[in-house]
Amino acid sequence: MIGVKSADLKAVATTDIDLEHEACEDIENALTFFFAGARCEPIERSGVVLVYAEKGYDPLQIVRTLVRSNIRCYWVIPIYTTCKTSYEDISKCVLELLLLSNVSKPIKLVFKCRKRGWSIDSCSKLSRYLGQAIEALGIAEIDFKKPEHVVRLEILGELTGISFYSIESEKEFKVARQTT
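The chain above was modelled as a monomer; its predicted structure follows.
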């Protein structure tokens, strides 16, 4: 993957396979006037594009701007932190994200994981590993039936994007596509 200087990964967007470049063009056009320096990077033949912006920009604001735009995407997921794809690094990042959140502890949450690439063996094993670690510390309680929050893991080869949001806000990430 090509890195974008002085920018952080702020969102992961899904589109149709082979429409990654067109989706990036739509995304860059939608963000031009609101987020200076925002850039998009397609991952060839994956149906995934990465959205980068300068450090000060809020990922949720970027997502809200994009889902209201006419872009050729299905979902735009905010990314709050990134780390190297390993159980230990992901665990550290998730713990830090949860501890720094303003949500009262213990947090009732569920993990959602999307694996692209071969850097980890399975999302299920990773989620179990993370769940055991944060429950043992008393930070959160894994609740599959009535979670209040989601920790979303976007495994992108050697890089993992991590989100933490309320379960109700997830519907905000779906793009309102206009039919042609």
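The longest strand covers residues 107-116.
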